[in-house]
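User: My instructor asked us to take a sequence, write out its structure as tokens, and then describe one feature of it. I'm not sure where to start. Here is the sequence I was given:
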Amino acid sequence: MLRRVLVSGLLAAGVLAGQVAERVSPGYKSIRAVDLRADLTFLSSDELEGRLSLERGSEIAIRWIAAEFAKAGLKPLVGDSYLQPVPLIDYRPARALTSLTVKGGQKYSAPDTIGSFPDDITVSGKVVFAGYGITAPELGYDDYAGIDVKGKVVMVFAHEPQEDDAASIFNGKGNTRYANTRAKMLNAVKHGAVALLIAPDPLHDPKMVRGPIGQPSTTLNGQPYIRPTQAIADEGSIPAFTVSQKVEDDLLQASGKKGADLQKAIDTTLKNVSMPLSAEVELHAGTSMRRRAVSYNVVGLVEGSDPTLRAETIVISAHYDHDGLSPQGGIFHGADDNGSGTVGVVALAKAFGLNPVKPKRSILFAVFAAEERGLLGAYYYTAHPLRDLAKTKATINFDMIGRDETPSRQTDGLMDIAKDTSNELNVIGTKYSPSYRKTVEELNRATGLNLSYKWDEDTVLSVLFRSDQYPFLMHDIPAMWWFTGFHPDYHQVTDTADKINYGKMEKILKLAYLTAFDFGDGAKTPAFVARGGK
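Assistant: Let's start with the prediction itself. The structure tokens for your sequence are:
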């Protein structure tokens, strides 16, 4: 009797002894590799020109996704439209116009100070050192305790305390959600700062540095080339500049403190050593091109079957944009990144639409804009949600679910990759919800994937921050990135549809279907653990 209760309660999606229950079988069986191949071949074709945000190819992708959502019978959430407008500023940073000047002292430019901002701006103020720039109440840690930074320029260390300490309250050797530059910028805004300087943490192992990601060349016809970038319009951000060790030493000089000593004090005691500095700086950021524009998140809903629980939401997400045309010729097709995730969301929308039985909670399907420009569509959605975030119970985010993970310039020397990853799926962020991980593992009995959590131990490549689940994680929502890993074609013109492992992709999406159904139909939803599994 006890066994029957455990099975029916834990596995609401209906997996028993590796078999899928009849109530969810129609949707499960509808997910087929042959259909995934057809859709991804179109989405990553030359005609979509690499789907660069705000360009023609991304507009075609938006219309295609919306049409597929309509065919699946999803409910639109923006009136009768599936399109949520995302207001953007498209701009090109002008490095020659970017500088930091110490009052009464030296003027620094690239490479000693690098930054960009969507407006031409000059900001000045006294400098305050604020540790790592982190406020984490659940960890009993606050770099801003006892200091006033209103109207000031805040200088903080990169990364987070004790990042190479397996016993650290900061997720051991894995990143917490606080190490991200944007999180530090928003925390500085919250405390009233006018600008943020990200300085080196001097004790950081020089070998533990993220490798090149293979982005488009920084030269064109022998001249420096800076790609346009984007920002959410009118979001109230402040300039965030990266500064060199030389600038850090200059700004700390009058205090008689050295960065390495301050870092050691924090890492040893987790005590606040923040302080005002005597230095005052003036920052300039300039642009060579700037325009306001609008992109779109594509969003639709399968409404839950329970009159009460349908107010709760499970999110299935991806992003559709990629890097467009190469400045040196060729197309960044983005078949894996992230045509695979986009096609995956569409396949699951169709699967839930086809299945006669709907889960009790509602399932939100979202394909976000401008991820490659900084997760902008996902950040915009979480700031302007179409469903109550307090009732959003879990996020399944797909970003690169189509390839076999292989060593690359990005991971060499930093992460051990298994020799055979042809059946492997990485799930990232599970320290924030062990119950989410447990459900995935139980349901994986039906699909038999090799599940890996190795990226939860990463502090160098910052994978926790690099896809659209992260903004949801910042709102205390169990949000995981489903990811088949890096490979030499990452952000290259060679990321094409013929290299996708469609059989594995089908298995991943079938597991995601069962997982989303279980989250949507079960008596309990995954629990968020703010202390990152501690």
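For the description part of your assignment, you could build on this observation: The chain has two domains: 29-89+291-303+311-521, 95-285. Try explaining in your own words what that tells you about the chain.
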